[in-house]
Amino acid sequence: MTITYEWRGEVGEAELEALHAAAFGRPPGESGWTEQLRRHSLGWVCARDGGTLVGFVNAAWDGGTHAFLLDTAVAPDRQGEGIGAAVVRRAADEARGAGCGWLHVDFEEPLRTFYFDACGFRTTAAGLLDLTS
């Protein structure tokens, strides 16, 4: 089937939580996705194969020139098909269209090749403060 990509697409709480749980290897829980998206997002991209959610990315923003990618997820059995790069590309295009000049992303080391090679991000100096310890 053909995968469709929709900016600010309709997405249900349960299907989004199930996708993230599977993609990040954790049990499903209650995350309040819909409320988070409504309150903090410039937009998000839903990738669907038929009616099934197979990819997602959230583009949060500061209301000005900076957008931030969060929660990039692709169904484990669909990884490696270019879905992740496509949702990131669509989010970048939409953020650019909204007047953003910068798109930021934080990631763990195993995702370096994905974000740099497949998505076109570049290395930059940044800082991170762990607020959980």
Helical residues, percent? 25-40%
Please tally the β strands and state the result. Answer: 5
Order of helices and strands: EHHEEEHEH
Beta-strand proportion: 25-35%
**Uncertain runs with pLDDT below 50, 5 residues or more?**
none
Mean pLDDT: 94
| Annotation field: number of helices | 4
Strand order of the largest sheet: 1-2-3-4-5
Find the structural class using helix and strand composition. alpha+beta
- How would you sum up the global shape? globular
Distance between the termini: 46 Å
Measured on Cα atoms, how large is the radius of gyration?
A: 14 Å
Q: Strand count, sense and closure of the main sheet?
A: 5 strands, mixed
Structure description:
This protein is 32% helix and 28% strand. With 133 residues, it is an alpha+beta fold. Strands 1-2-3-4-5 form a 5-stranded mixed sheet. The chain starts with a strand and ends in a 15-residue tail after the last helix. The model has no long low-confidence stretch (mean pLDDT 94).
Give a quick set of tags describing it.
alpha+beta
Set down the secondary structure blueprint.
Layout: E1 3-7, H1 13-24, H2 33-40, E2 41-49, E3 52-61, E4 66-74, H3 83-97, E5 102-105, H4 112-118
Parallel strand pairs: 4-5
Antiparallel strand pairs: 1-2, 2-3, 3-4
